[in-house]
Amino acid sequence: MTSEADGQSIVSRFLRRQRSLSGRLVFVAAIWSVLSLAVAGFILVELYKSASERSFDAQLDVYVKLILAEIVPDPAAGNDAGISAPENLDDPRFSLPLSGWYWTVAKADGTTVLFASSSLVGDPLSVPPLGDQESQSTFSVGPGSEEIRVVQKRIGIAGQDYVIIVAAKTAGFRADIREFAQQVILTLVVFGAGLVGAVFLQVRIGLRPLARLRSSLGEVRRGEAEELDEDLPVELAPLAVELNALIHSNREIVERSRTHVGNLAHGLKTPLSVITNEARTETGPFADKVSEQAAVMSTQIQHHLERARMAAQRRVIGVSCEVEPVLGRLVRAMSKIYRERDVGLADAPPAGLHFRGEQQDLEELTGNLLDNACKWARSSVSVNVSLLQSGETARELFQIVVEDDGPGLSESECREAVKRGKRLDETVPGTGLGLSIVADLAGLYGGYLELDRSNLGGLRARLVLPSV
């Protein structure tokens, strides 16, 4: 029970680690094939062994009958005549000393051996007792400690019971079985390898439509196609149709969300602008408080509308953009705006790297980080892009690291900096929404933003995003 449970545990652990469907199918088929062929091979060898034993026993039984025919007394000699010694068995092996072929004739009580073959050269033939049985076929140990096959038969002659015993060494018999077993193993190994190969081809060919579906889905995710290819087998075609319907429905929902966000922006910003303008025409504590709260409301509205717009764009299926052109344009723009700063890419982004999302979102993410770094940097800003490996989620991720040589932030200030509307220095222009928008948008895309100390002495902003 323990070994069986251990075997099941090993198979279960392998299947949990094996993420490939074809790998699972081939592994299970291979295990089943090996077990089935092993059982089949064992059964074949046992059947051959049983057949060989019956054939061997039949051969020995022929000599038992020949001996019986030789020892039966001649009826013409009278009923009181005793048995006579066998004279001719037509097999010289019974005459050669220790040839491995032997016979004896003894009384049924086993106390007296009446006749024995010359091959025994006087050695006794040790065999299991016959008991109450009329005949028996067993294995025993003969002269020279060789294994022998023994056939015994009880006969009654003239009122006296005798036992005829014929034995032969099993070396040739065992050699035939071993040779047959080797041939069976070789044949089943070749057959098993061919069977596993055939299963592998069957799985590869049978799952090829799934590979096509995966490739088609990848094209949609990369923005290279508008919908999935529906030219698939009847089992998969309905899935492709439903996915295409989901994609179209998703786009319609996103468009409606964008329209609602735009309408809400116009509906709120215009009355708020009127309130702010009216407050500016007045003086006094009340007007100041209205202006202050209107500014707070404007900041909150801007943040939540921007977040809603991002969330709507995040749900678009099949949207992607190349990273290198976006970063290149932003670096060049920041270099012109902040001429006194040295803004540059430490290394060129990996060739063909695509962000799984809207181009304008990538521009806003990296633009906010670059703008924040340029505001606080003393002389230089460095940007680095590299791929990441995620063993837990198996997603493709990349990181954008922006570093500056400014004053930097402490751990507590890093936590405060990503809170919406939080400005750590009121002397620098801005709304305080830049880093919070980056953190929120990165989270919507399944990424994140980390802030810590840079090797340049200032702030190090590490932005992790999904790639295609």
TrEMBL record:
**What GO MF annotations does this protein's record show?**
ATP binding
* Subcellular location per the Swiss-Prot or TrEMBL entry: Membrane
The segment(s) forming the Histidine kinase domain are 263-468
Q: Does the keyword Ubl conjugation apply?
A: no
Q: Where are the transmembrane segments?
A: 21-45, 184-207
Q: State its Enzyme Commission number(s).
A: 2.7.13.3
Matching entries from InterPro entries are given as: HAMP_dom, HATPase_C_sf, HATPase_dom, His_kinase_dom, HisK_dim/P_sf, Sig_transdc_His_kin-like_C, TCS_sensor_his_kinase
Keywords, in A-Z order: ATP-binding, Kinase, Membrane, Nucleotide-binding, Phosphoprotein, Transferase, Transmembrane, Transmembrane helix, Two-component regulatory system
Q: Where is the HAMP domain?
A: 204-255
Transmembrane helix keyword on record: yes
- Catalytic activity field: ATP + protein L-histidine = ADP + protein N-phospho-L-histidine
Q: Which residues form a coiled coil?
A: none
Under PANTHER family, the record lists:
SENSOR HISTIDINE KINASE TRCS, SENSOR HISTIDINE KINASE YKOH
- This chain's protein is named histidine kinase
Question: From which source organism is this entry?
Answer: Roseibium algae
